[in-house]
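ok trying again, last paste got cut off:
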Amino acid sequence: MWPFTKRKPLEKPSRKTQDLSPDALAKSAERQDLFALVELFLVRRIETELALEEKRAEVKLKSAEAEAQTKLKLAELAEQRRQLRAAKMAERNRTAPRDAKGRVSAMNRPNGCAVCADPASPHLTVDEIRLHHAAGHSNGSVPTSR
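nice, full thing came through this time. structure:
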């Protein structure tokens, strides 16, 4: 016989030949119940996590839809403002007074008054300032009521 082979001890019979004791049967039933409870707990936990994930996805979808609606509305408002500005400019170009060369004159001047438009301008003439006061316009940043 080979000297390095391991011999089985004869004191302990193999498990195949052992009879199951009532304690072992009870413990195995308890274990099966515990495993079933753990499995049920895990299944319920997974179900709740999936439900929460679905709710999160719905909230994300709704918020994305709301954001898209907001962006669309802002784009519409910007387009309306652009069209309004273009219409105002077209109206100004049609109705604004022109100088001898056909250029729009006094475009930035309220009521065509150069002094009201820029009271600190060095290009104002004495006649423009006299006409400004004669028309009863205010003195710009200086309050008229004392």
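cool. The chain has two domains: 22-95, 103-141. Residues 103-141 form one domain.
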